[in-house]
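Practice problem: predict the structure.
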Amino acid sequence: MKSLPYKMVLRSGIVLLLIGCALSVMARELPPGIIALDGRVADPLKLSDADGNKINLELLRGNWVLVHFWASWCGPCRREMPAIQRMATAMEKTSLKLVLVNTAESDDAVFSFLSVAAPKLTSFMDRDGRVTERWQPRGLPASFLVDPQGRLRYLALGGREWDTPPYLNFLKGLLAPPAGPKP
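Answer:
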């Protein structure tokens, strides 16, 4: 019986390794309602809050950013906001950045709602709705996860229980350094 040439065995090993890597990436279990995106560059996001504090998504590069679009008149948004506040508290010592974007409401409406539902959170104001229009969230609430290179990686449509283990573990997993070879 003739032995296989060295190059053929090496190529087969490399192919199997690549297939294994691809399967492990595909096997990453996403929490319910989280959709993987294509990695296109996130649209610009420059807004201010009711006190005039500004946010520029581009300046947050190097961090994972959860960009959350919401409105106080939206029932699922109202139910979800306390969970977002608890998630923010649970993640406050991590590098995850949270950017809340209120869609076209008055400062008074936003303040009145957040002071009751999530008093520790601050929202940036998309007063004319143009940022929301560019991001096209397909409904509210909608949360985009932007990677450290400024690319859209995940989307959550509808209210999520962000403070529960599946979502917290998913977020923490995004922040974990990639596993490398052991010394």
